[in-house]
TrEMBL record:
The lineage of its organism: Bacteria, Bacillati, Actinomycetota, Actinomycetes, Mycobacteriales. The keyword NADP does not apply. Its EC number is 2.7.9.1. Keywords: Plasmid, Pyruvate, Transferase. It is an enzyme of class 2 (transferase). One of its GO terms (molecular function) is ATP binding. PROSITE patterns: PEP_ENZYMES_PHOS_SITE. This is Pyruvate, phosphate dikinase.
Length: 477
């Protein structure tokens, strides 16, 4: 096993290279604008772990070979202060684990390189911002200060990314989502592009279809001057993609064309990360888009109607759980996007209800008698609380799990319930009006409107059920 150059093959095994590298490879193989990259496979992860977390000489040689090809491809050199190469060092398991493992951007920067970048870009601010981002992220991910020697920093960053596979948060995520701890992460090294370069630069995320509603129109955000995780972190106020269309219409048109092509190639709605550097579009990643249950059923139907997948594939694309959730009362997805989340926990009984939060059963009974909808919030419940539970629109608890008293009784009552919100979390909600979404385990401030359960999602479910009874047929490609 050696390093794998991305774009040389039509497809790669995600178990070998990780989902991120696989998507880069696919896009480059399709001739799309993607920065060049290579990957050290997941097979190396166990080797590094067995070597006390250090890269072996063999792996370092593969890294050196990969850097040599990256330098030849870009005409730049790592650590060179005349034509410096900058790279990102990214993790990537076979299955997506958003935010669980580590990434280092802008590697290749040091004081001398910053000075040179300020000269050739004409922007000391850009050079300083890029250096600052690198220093802060390197310190956070690697746990030590950058050495100032790019090759040494690269080795340390790769070791940190391999190690992130076994970080407590990654192991907890895999356990919760029933993902195997075997396999490991790959390390992808890719030439950097800079969304913070100038006024015609930025970063963004594009969904080929609306992941909240399932509407076929593309949906996404654009952050001028942004880089890396700036958009998805939520720390910055991103703009609608219409703003990119106004600023750089040709880039926007190119992005829309790429979105359509990637959706047809992937045979599913896509979540695409992109960067614009000095007016030039670069695609960084694409993957099947996460979506609400309501969007899931609509997307499955429209993909089949447009000939991207077969009807039988559409039936398989929407799960039974998504179909059930899509046809149950649920918060309007657009209202959910703008709502304030005040607490969350484990969903114990599905459904949605709004009301005033009370902390004891006597208050629940009194207000209910007055015609005021109530939400019963308790540290936990026991049989003495049933009288208050019966009159409540929803039940929320600070502790407890799926088999707790509150969960079992609420399911028997058919009352929306969320458990395990955290000790002390609910105290600040007493007396306030909230909306409890027992399907997703979320509590929102105020009264949120419900979506029409006989709307487009219902029609899509009916269509899927009709198709499920059909003999499999092919549709035009």
């Amino acid at each position: 096993m050696t390093f794998i150059w991305l774009g040389d093959a039509p497809d790669l095994d995600p178990a070998l290279v990780g989902g991120k590298a696989r998507s880069i490879n696919r896009m480059r193989a399709l001739g799309m604008p993607v920065p060049p990259a290579f990957v050290l496979s997941t097979a190396f992860c166990a080797e590094v772990s067995a070597n006390n977390g250090r890269l072996t000489d063999r792996i370092m040689q593969h890294m050196s070979d990969g850097i040599d090809r990256l330098q030849a491809e870009t005409g730049r050199r790592l650590g060179c202060d005349t034509a410096p190469l900058f790279v990102s060092v990214r993790s990537g398991g076979a299955q997506s684990m958003p935010g669980m493992m580590d990434t280092v951007l802008n590697l290749g920067m040091n004081t001398d390189v910053e000075r040179r970048v300020a000269e050739y870009s004409g922007s000391p601010d850009f050079a300083a911002d890029t250096h600052r981002r690198f220093v802060e992220q390197f310190s956070r991910v690697v746990g030590t200060e950058a050495t100032g020697v790019p090759w040494d920093d690269l080795i340390l960053a790769a070791e940190a990314v391999f190690a992130s596979w076994n970080s407590p948060r990654a192991r907890s995520y895999r356990a919760h989502h029933d993902i195997s701890h075997e396999g490991g992460t790959a390390v992808t090294v890719q030439a950097m592009v800079f969304g913070n370069y100038d006024e015609n630069s930025g970063t963004g995320v594009l969904f080929s279809r609306n992941p909240l509603t399932g509407d076929p129109a593309p949906y996404g955000e654009w952050l001028p001057g942004g880089q890396g995780e700036d958009v998805v972190s939520g720390r910055f106020d991103a703009l609608h993609l219409e703003e990119l269309e106004k600023l750089l219409p040709e880039v926007h048109a190119q992005l829309m064309a790429a979105s359509e092509a990637l959706e047809r190639h992937g045979r599913d709605a896509q979540d695409i990360e992109f960067t614009v550097e000095n007016g030039r579009l670069w695609l960084l990643q694409t993957r099947a888009a996460k979506r609400s249950p309501q969007a899931a059923v609509r997307i499955a139907v429209t993909l089949a109607q447009e000939g991207i997948i077969t009807r039988q594939e559409a039936v398989a694309l929407a799960t039974d759980a998504q179909i059930a959730a899509a046809t149950a009362p649920h918060v309007d997805p657009v209202a959910r996007r703008d709502a304030t989340l005040v607490a969350s926990g484990l969903p114990a009984c599905p459904g949605v209800a709004s009301g005033r939060v009370v902390s004891d059963c006597e208050a629940a009974e009194k207000l209910s008698d007055e015609g005021i909808p109530v939400i019963l919030a308790r540290p936990t419940t026991d049989p003495d609380d049933v009288a208050g539970m019966v009159v409540s629109e929803a039940i929320i608890t600070e502790i407890g799990g799926a088999t707790s008293h509150a969960a079992v009784v609420s399911r028997e009552l058919g009352t929306p319930c969320i458990v395990g919100c955290g000790q002390g979390v609910l105290d600040s909600l007493i007396g306030k009006t909230v909306t409890v979404d027992g399907t997703n385990g979320e509590i929102f401030e105020g009264i949120l409107p419900l979506a029409d359960v006989h709307g487009k999602e219902h029609d899509a479910v009916v269509q899927l059920r009709d198709w499920a009874t059909e003999t499999p047929v092919a549709v035009a490609r």
